[in-house]
Design brief:
Helix content: 25-40%
Radius of gyration: 27 Å
Distance between the termini: 64 Å
CATH architecture of the largest domain: Alpha Horseshoe
CATH topology of the largest domain: Serine Threonine Protein Phosphatase 5, Tetratricopeptide repeat
Number of strands: 18
CATH class of the largest domain: Mainly Alpha
Largest sheet: 6 strands, mixed
Length: about 425
C-alpha cells in the first residue's frame, strides 16, 4: 500500500543562497544553518508520488516552537520559497504541503519540532586593537610585536582571526597569520626586512561571514636587533609562545590612550550622533565603531551603539558591546542595565538577574531596578521572587508616582493583590 497516496511527503528542506547570504552549518553537527541576509530561500524536495502540489504553507517560529506563525503560501507551489524577516535571530521553519488528496500535516503546534533552524546574523563582530607593543626575550633579542585585542560576537567560528601588516611608506597588506583562535593576544616575530611606520590590521569573522576590522596606530620599526633600537622601550615577554593562553581573563585592558586618539574618538562620536539623529543608522554605526577603536575606554560611543542595536532588534550585538564596556568599567550602571535588557530579550534570565543585582549592590534604593529584577523572576516562573522584589521596589518609589503605579499594576495582575 502506498502510505502517501492520500497526502504529501516532504523529503528534505534546506537553504538556497543568493548574495549576500552565506551558509555554514556549524561544525559541531548542529542542523542550524547561518545566513547574513534578512532575505533567503528555503528549498525543499517532495516525494514524486505526492506531485502535483496545489499549495505550500511556510510556517515559522522565533521562540523555540512555542508559537507558530504562517509566513506565506507559495504561489507557484514549487521549490524554493522565499523568507524575509526584519531582524536578526534564530528562526525555526515548518512546511506544510498540500495536494488534491490533502495536507502533509496539520499546522504546527507548540509541540512541533521545526524541520529547519536558521540563524540570521547580519551584525559584524566588534573588534578593538587594545595595544601593539615591542617586546623581546633576553635569549634571542629578536624584534617581536605583542598584539592584544578584544573581539565580541555570539557566533564565532573556532578560528575566526586573521592578522596582516603594512608599511605606510609602501601601502599593501601582507599576511601575518590566518585562522587564529580568538586568544586575544598574538606575538609576532618581525622579519628583519620590515622597517618603517608599521600598521597592524585585525580581521575577525563570524560563522555567517560578517567581518569586523580594526587597524592599529602606526609603530616605528627600525632595522637592526632590539638592543640597537631607539625611541622604543622593549620589555621582557612572559613566554616564547606565539599565542598567549586562551584564558582571556589574564589580559588586562590597556588604558593608556593618547590625547590624539581621545580627541579623534570624540570627533567620531559626535559625527556618529549626527548621522543617528538624521536616521542614517548604518553611517552612525560605522562612525561609532571607529570611535570605540580609537578609545575603547570611552563609554558614550559604545553605549550609544548598543542602544541602536537594541532598538533594531540586534540584541546579541547590543549585549556584546555592553560587555566590552564592562571590561573597562565593571560597575558601569548603564551597561549593566543595558546588558540585562539584552539578556532578557535573548531569554537568558539568570544572567540578566545577576547584572541587575550588581546594579542594586551599588545603589540598593533603586526602585526601578528592583522592579525590573522582579519582572525577570516572573519570566523565570518564580512568582514568589517577583513578589519579594516588587514589594521591595515599592519602598523606593515615593517620589515616582508612575513607578508606583506600574508596580501596583504588576502585583494586581500577576499576584492578585489589591
Amino acid at each position: 500500500m502506498n502510505l502517501y497516496r492520500h497526502g504529501c511527503r516532504l523529503l528534505i528542506m534546506s537553504l538556497m543562497f543568493s548574495a549576500p547570504a552565506l551558509a555554514s552549518p556549524p561544525p559541531d553537527g548542529s542542523q542550524t544553518a547561518t545566513v547574513r541576509s534578512h532575505t533567503f530561500d528555503l528549498a525543499y524536495q517532495v516525494d514524486p508520488v505526492s506531485l502535483p502540489l496545489t499549495d505550500v504553507e511556510l510556517w515559522f517560529t522565533t521562540d523555540d516552537g512555542q508559537n507558530w506563525h504562517l509566513f506565506c503560501r507559495d504561489p507557484d507551489a514549487k521549490s524554493p520559497v522565499t523568507f524575509r524577516c526584519d531582524q536578526d535571530g534564530t528562526y525555526g521553519f515548518f512546511l506544510v504541503l498540500i495536494n488534491a488528496a490533502g495536507r502533509s500535516s496539520a499546522a504546527p503546534s507548540a509541540t512541533q519540532e521545526p524541520q529547519q533552524w536558521v540563524l540570521v546574523d547580519t551584525a559584524k563582530p566588534l573588534v578593538q586593537i587594545k595595544q601593539v607593543r615591542l617586546v623581546t626575550l633576553e635569549s634571542d633579542k629578536q624584534r617581536r610585536l605583542a598584539v592584544s585585542w578584544a573581539a565580541y560576537d555570539a557566533n564565532f567560528s573556532d578560528r575566526p582571526v586573521s592578522m596582516d601588516y603594512q608599511i605606510r611608506e609602501k601601502p599593501g597588506w601582507h599576511s601575518i597569520v590566518t585562522h587564529l583562535r580568538n586568544t586575544r593576544r598574538f606575538d609576532w616575530t618581525v622579519p628583519d626586512n620590515v622597517t618603517g611606520q608599521l600598521e597592524i590590521r585585525l580581521e575577525v569573522a563570524d560563522r555567517a561571514g560578517n567581518v569586523g576590522v580594526a587597524v592599529s596606530n602606526p609603530i616605528e620599526m627600525f632595522s637592526g636587533n632590539v638592543s640597537s633600537l631607539t625611541g622604543i622601550s622593549p620589555t621582557d615577554a612572559d613566554s616564547k609562545s606565539t599565542a598567549s593562553s586562551e584564558d582571556p581573563s589574564t589580559d588586562a585592558p590597556a588604558k593608556n590612550i593618547d590625547l590624539l586618539s581621545r580627541s579623534k574618538a570624540r570627533e567620531l562620536y559626535d559625527l556618529g550622533l549626527y548621522h543617528r539623529d538624521r536616521g542614517d543608522w548604518a553611517l552612525a554605526a560605522d562612525r561609532l565603531i571607529e570611535a570605540i577603536n580609537y578609545d575603547p575606554t570611552m563609554t558614550e560611543p559604545a553605549q550609544t551603539l548598543a542602544r541602536m542595536y537594541y532598538d533594531q532588534g540586534n540584541y546579541q550585538g547590543s549585549l556584546s558591546i555592553h560587555q566590552g564596556v564592562l571590561e573597562y568599567h565593571s560597575t558601569d550602571r548603564d551597561s549593566l542595565r543595558g546588558s540585562a535588557l539584552a539578556l532578557v530579550a535573548l531569554r537568558r534570565y539568570p544572567e540578566a538577574l545577576t547584572n541587575l543585582e550588581h546594579v542594586l549592590a551599588s545603589n540598593p534604593e533603586d526602585g526601578q531596578t528592583w522592579m525590573d529584577a522582579g519582572d525577570v523572576f516572573l519570566w523565570m516562573g518564580k512568582r514568589d521572587g517577583a513578589k519579594n522584589y516588587w514589594e521591595q521596589a515599592m519602598k523606593f518609589c515615593k517620589d515616582r508616582k508612575d513607578l508606583k503605579t506600574e508596580i501596583e499594576g504588576r502585583l494586581k495582575k500577576y499576584l492578585g493583590e489589591k
